[in-house]
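3.2 Worked example (two chains)
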Amino acid sequence: MKLYDGFISQINGLINGRRALTAEYSPSSLENAGKNNVLFLKDTAFELGGSGEKCVSTLAVTSSFKYSNRIRLLGGDIKDIKSDCPFAKIVLLEIEEIDEETAFEKIRRLEQIRYNFCPRGFMSRASAISMREQIRVGKKTVKDKISLVDYAKFMLGEYLKDSIVKSAEIILVTDRSFDYDGLISVSEKIKDTTSALNHILDNVLFDCKSCNLKEICDEVEGMKELHMKTVNQKR
């Protein structure tokens, strides 16, 4: 699976060279609160991505790059944050080679992980359409000196449980100077590529000129090849 490799390179361009706290993965001691976890405002210290701050969450898969199961944090940790601030969460996954017929289903399964698990003391409010994922951080979480690295280790462990995931990296950003708009732009292309993948496999249009996803197929190396392969199979 190499359809997202160009976008991963663009993300690396936004991240690399910036000062970051780096931690290797180890099993998290945080308790899973489940997908129905609720954290009320009265119990909330602050919200990452709240109060209209910049906020973006994205996930990209590849079979070309190998990761070291690490976490990178750009910006302040929980102990440094006093109020709502901008936030980005980037999940990069090395997966085993998957066939085109099941690619969309498997990628969507990986995207759904964030909706099913959340460590206690945090509450995630995610929207796939807007690509936002706001994270409420509880007052008790701050008091207990839990860090964003702890949070990321918990989430990384959930991704590694999936049978097709070989390695992973999670990058969290709270730095106000970060190029959130640039990441939003790349994330939109990732989302459109996944939509185009589903479109190609389920509802092939033989005339590329009439397809509203032509721009994505033109930009993403391998997408048009997959399109023509699918067309030939269905003719």
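3.2.1 Second chain
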Amino acid sequence: MLSMDTLLELTKLGAHMLWPVSCPVCGAVGELLCEPCLRSLLRPPLPRCLLCGEVIPCKIHKSDTARIHTGAVYAGDMRELVLTLKKGKYKALGPLMGKALASVFPRPALDLLVPVPLHLKSARRYNQAELIAKGLGEVWDIEVRSAACWTVDVPTRAGMGAAERLSLSSEVFEFEDVSGLRIGLVDDVCTTGSTLSRLAKAAQKRGAEVAGAFVLAGNSFVR
């Protein structure tokens, strides 16, 4: 008669054969990403000012300014997870990441979550920020809508230096009608905060109140 440990190992092996994946953090077979592993990576750094990227309390803007809330530092296992999502190998990682991120921060009083849009000439057939936003929206019970788009063809953010990012105008984004709505922006990675800041200004021009941004991982902000 097989022992319980043997049965467990056979079950894991069977799961791996049916669904040949393993958790990139702990290596558990049959698991795209273990929830405990993902939660262990989420250690939010201090929030940043959405207007300029400075650590809260911001020395430039008032204390109640909208904030960028980041789930973790963009390094190590978290960086590898984000890159795996971006490469499109396992798109299901996006909603899982969003759900985990939602467990880190209290539910905000929002009408809408808006993901940072894909670039005009992006070869990717999906928006990883939208996938993360869907996970957030499911947990928080907040509508997710791709309400913004780029208006000009700029280089991908990965190919832009800090100076180029900071030189972006809010005119590079266009919003559909969001007047009277309290919205939150969503992205996968935040480097300088400039993209989120410009997107927020574009939303405000369309009559929205931008309450903050929620990002899976963030680099050190360059100023």
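3.3 Remarks
The CA atoms of residues 8 and 198 lie 52 Å apart.
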